[in-house]
Specification:
This protein has 312 residues and is mainly beta. The protein has two domains: 7-54 and 171-281, no CATH class; 59-161, Tumour Suppressor Smad4 (Sandwich). The protein is 10% helix and 32% strand. The strands form five sheets. Strands 2-12-11-10-7-8 form a six-stranded antiparallel β-sheet, with no helix packed on it. Strands 1-17-16-13-20 form a five-stranded antiparallel β-sheet, with helices on one face. Strands 4-3-5-6-9 form a five-stranded mixed β-sheet, with no helix packed on it. Strand 16 and strand 17 (222-226) form a beta hairpin. The radius of gyration is 22 Å and the shape is globular. The two termini are 29 Å apart.
């Protein structure tokens, strides 16, 4: 992947003040006090609780891509949707994918005695589609749950198992010490209307999201522009996917995630102490986005989560 700078040398403090608007300073927002450090540590603790919960990313035990026609479900290796042998009969059912316009139709046929349920009701035959927001019915089989997700025009069955080995063997996440200098204020350079952005993912495919425009902020003696992503033009919750000089060395090679709210005055607070690893850093059964063009930084961002080493 071609690496671009994404960093513009700062000409003067005056330039940055013009970028931010009158009455603003270029300094980091966060005071260097124990209350701020405690707030970040609390956020990290909540993040860890979500990751390790019974519905967290560590429980995604399978990602199985469907083909048109019949796709077997069960623990027999001949099935396209392979389930754990200790939690599923060899042949639990079949998912039929019927390409139609505007989107495919799915039919789940559960074999007698398989125990597949939907909303606690035993399933015999269920016909459904994946909603425009990407959601589908969630089916259960004992401790397992599974549902269909769309990705770049294809469809896969995602399987969740709270007893999955990645969850049992998880050893925690290392992170940089909290540094208030990495909590900065930026400003959105708003476009006339959000534009679509091609976003590559870890599978090598490209999805489309939107950006309302670049966010510009000062970090040390540089001005940086990052492209935030949104799912829909009306969103105000900005999603940043970025790589920096630590990626693949000190931090996860595929980049890190950061969320921030867009304020009504166009300001955006970016707290890189809350930059975190995508699910793909822990689990191969995931399909994470990679940084869009412009979000590959040549300077290090030594804040937030470090690379995960299983069993460390």
């Amino acid at each position: 992947m071609h690496r671009t700078s994404g960093i513009v040398p700062i000409l003067s403090i005056v330039l940055w003040n013009l970028l931010r608007g009158p009455g603003h300073a270029a300094a980091a927002l966060a005071p260097a006090d124990s209350a701020y450090v405690a707030s970040v540590e609390a956020w990290r603790s909540e993040r860890l609780s979500r990751l390790t919960s019974a519905t967290g990313w560590l429980t995604v035990a399978g990602l199985h891509w469907l083909e048109p026609g019949a796709n077997g479900v069960g623990s027999d290796p001949a099935n396209r949707v392979l389930l754990p042998a200790d939690a599923s009969p060899p042949r639990a059912g079949v998912i039929r994918l019927h390409p139609t316009d505007p989107g495919p139709e799915f039919v789940l046929e559960a074999f007698p005695g398989s125990g597949i349920r939907c909303d606690s009701v035993l399933v015999s035959r269920e016909t459904f589609r994946v909603d425009t927001d990407g959601s589908s019915p969630v089916f259960t089989l004992g401790r397992l749950s599974f549902w269909i997700i769309p990705r770049a025009g294809r469809y896969a069955v995602r399987v969740r198992d709270p007893e999955y080995s990645l969850r049992k063997e998880f050893r925690g996440i290392d992170a940089y010490p909290v540094d208030p200098a990495y909590r900065v204020v930026g400003r959105l350079e708003a476009l006339a209307a959000p534009r679509p952005v091609p976003v590559p993912n870890i599978m090598g495919w490209v999805d489309t999201m939107f950006t309302p425009g670049p966010v510009v902020f000062a970090l040390g003696d540089t001005v940086i522009r990052l492209t935030p992503l949104i799912d829909a033009p009306s969103d105000s919750n900005l999603f940043f996917v970025f790589q920096d000089a630590t990626s693949g060395i000190e931090t996860y090679g595929g980049g890190r995630f950061l969320y921030s709210d867009l304020r009504s005055d166009g300001e955006v607070v970016l707290d890189f102490n809350k930059a975190y690893n995508p699910p793909c850093a822990f689990n191969p059964n995931t399909t994470c986005p990679l940084p869009p063009e412009g979000n590959l930084l040549t300077r290090p961002i030594r804040a937030g989560e470090k690379a995960y080493a299983a069993g460390h």
